[in-house]
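Figure S4 source data
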Amino acid sequence: MNRSRELLWLSVLAALAGCAEQPSSASGTEDAGTKTPTLDGGDVPDAATTAAAAAEEKGPCAGKTEGALACDGESVVRCVGAGREPEAVKTCLDIERCEAGACAPACPEGEVYVPATGPAGFKMGKNLSAFGFGNRKSGYHGKGRADLPHKVVLTKPFCMDQTEVTAGAMKKCVQEKGCKAPQRTDRWVTYPDKPDYPVNLVDYPMSKYYCEQYEKSLPTEAQWEWAATGGDGRSWPWGEEEPTCEHTDFTQAILISPGGDSGCHGGGPSKVGTHRKGDKIWPDGPIHDLAGNVWEWVLDSYVPYSGKDEVDPVHVRSNIGNYVVRGGGWNRSGRGILAAFRGGAIVSYKVPGLGFRCVRNAKERAATTASAPH
């Protein structure tokens, strides 16, 4: 009887010991993807959940509040909460970088970022000139006005050369990329002996070819005027102060002749960037010599403005051999260097007062995030 009772108690104790071991065993061998209940009814995160939270902390939204903007590579994203993929807002253009949740200028050295106009655009045309083309003896004055006022919207930013293309840069292009060398047919020619001066005696095709070798373009007429003024209607790139030889190289008195000993320094252009008082200042930096020094070829054909509002206008007419030149030169007066003044020249025109600069047009990048923009 005593032996039977002893065996019964041993059985009870063994059963109780087995029950005591079960919680410990279960918690130590829990399968991945399950959660262990706690005494208060909550769940302890499993290993996968913990890893996801850690990855979130290392992502573009680490340390940011919901709704904040951040950078994911070159894309701007909006943070939407822990454990969720951020929403794509936009991808920066190839002339921009993503910085602090916004697209910031990233033009190459020697170029200045010029922003888009925004939907309000800017006004081009001041009704200054009758449309005409040709020399004084031709008597051809065209018909109508050359610069009827109208609104222009530029939808993308661009990078503009900070200076006019120099003789030194042209020499490099001649040596490496097949550019045609300017002929040394004038005493004021800058190529090849004045490397820091604007290259001159270049026609439209020579200028256009140079820009294209560096994945750039001649500026459109609208880009050029927007870059020179910022759209506020100013008379000259620096504002309304009457031009002097501190602002630019131009002809202060009566022009003797287009090729005469005129200009602030007795004839011929100046070194690029010499007249800093005349710079057009953008947030990304100054652009030099948009007035005076040398005229600059632009992409558009010389045709009268229609007077109609336009978006990203480009007016190239293959059947017209005349193209727009802008900015005036060392051998032009204060009127010729007005930011709104339109000049025109035959496609093959090569003179010592005419050069050019280039722009780098923005291109779209491929989106780097999977989420659709909101």
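Figure S5 source data
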Amino acid sequence: MLDADRMAGSDDPASFAPVNLLWTGGWDSSFRLLQLLLLHRRKVVPWYLVDETRASSRNELLAMQRIRERLFQEHPQTRSLLAPLRRHDVAEIAPDPEITAAHAALASERFLGNQYDWLARFCKQQGIERAELAAGYVGGRIHAALHAFVTSFRDGDHDSYRVGPEHRGTPQHLLFGAFSFPLFELDKLGTARIAADHGWLDLLDLTCFCHKPRNDGVPCGCCNPCLYAVDEGFGWRIPRRNRIKGMFYRALVRPAKAPAKAILRRLGGGAERSPSRAG
């Protein structure tokens, strides 16, 4: 039987089905976008789920627009490969108790963002199979949760990873079975080395990660994504002054936040909040 993703006897990338990529305007998914467009010459359908509760949504959309414009300017051939961004509101995704229970089961073992719950529900309800999720780096939470469940497979003209069908019915398969993980065996710094080798750093410098950037787009240094960037060896993306602020925030403010929230919950569900509460 022929591979469903390719025509008989053809190795032309145009013969492969378009890749459904979950794009956020961040480093990881933008790196994967560049791999698909510039190395594999694959057609890409980018998806973005709009979460109105996330203050960073506007910055993510602006980053994707900047990257698209620069791509088309520097690499005109990508105009025919990159489809328009498909947006969907998170609030419109229907509940799915089975998927939400699977998320709760895995989140009880290690921190797992709520986005994986609604991403899984979205893909199931839209009938999207093998949506590419640029997560699963070696040493990361997704890699730790799935490393014993994934198997490699040939996805068109490149290798990727997915939760194997033999794990059907497990929380891992219920939550992540709709996704493929093309970066599963890379580490974060490895993507930076590959990007440097191919001359992509100027494009990736247009990505966003800070939840509370200044009006000029400079990262704050104190939000969780900024702190994660420092931990992952990407502190160079944050100005030195803001990195220092982040060091003080991590050492002095962050440890006090959880006890303070617990006290507020006991006093009435956190009704009283300091107007100067740090993010």
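Residues 1-10, 270-279 have pLDDT under 50 and may be disordered. The chain has two domains: 13-188, 209-279.
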